[in-house]
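U., I forgot to send this yesterday:
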Amino acid sequence: MGIVNVTPDSFSDGGRWVSTEGAVDQAMRLVADGAEVLDIGGESTRPGADPVGEAEEIDRVAPVIAAIRARWDGAISVDTMKPAVARAAVAAGATMWNDVAALTHEAGAEAVAAELGCDVVLMHMKGEPRTMQAAPHYDDVVGEVVGYLAARAEAAMAAGVAREKIWLDPGIGFGKALAHNLALTARLDALVELGFPVLYAASRKRTIQAVDPTAVAATDRLGGSLALALEGARRGARMVRVHDVRETVQALKVQAAVTNA
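Result:
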């Protein structure tokens, strides 16, 4: 899954692809590099981020999704917490709803997901983006995250979302300290064992800087991003969400070659 942020304030590439033309060009570059899914986001969910209004978010993502769909018939995901934005995105051509709030941002979000019939990614986030990194605490981070996502999957299915449409994401960096992120990665099998496909997303995140303090800029974190993507894949993730598609595809190919040797 290649990332296209059409936001002015995303932590890694905010402001680079805010025009529809620029975002579509970047999306096509990611496809050429090997992306199988494009994730389009119009609201930053970095730590400390301010919320974006519904109408503004739709104005950011819908034209980009429609323009990509006119050029490409692959899977397009919309990264949003808002049901109205997901609805507009699917109308424009999106086929997946990637929700960092796991369909809890608004009442009735599960019913909207069922109505849309698209794939849905349910992610774990403790708190909200503005405050989520303020001393997050867990007694058992793996057990709590797995339990929460199992419950959210059940709620989605109870509302009519087909089981085969549901993906789970442990939410690396969303209300979690370094130790939590490392534990969730090392025990990703506990989430995989629930039987849903897992999306693993750690590209360029601050977890890498916490391990290597020299990686201050997001663009200095390629090595760590590749290491985490490979670990996620090795431990059962069905898909990895990344900024550096070409390098990640190459790393995964080499890993697979070694595994199959």
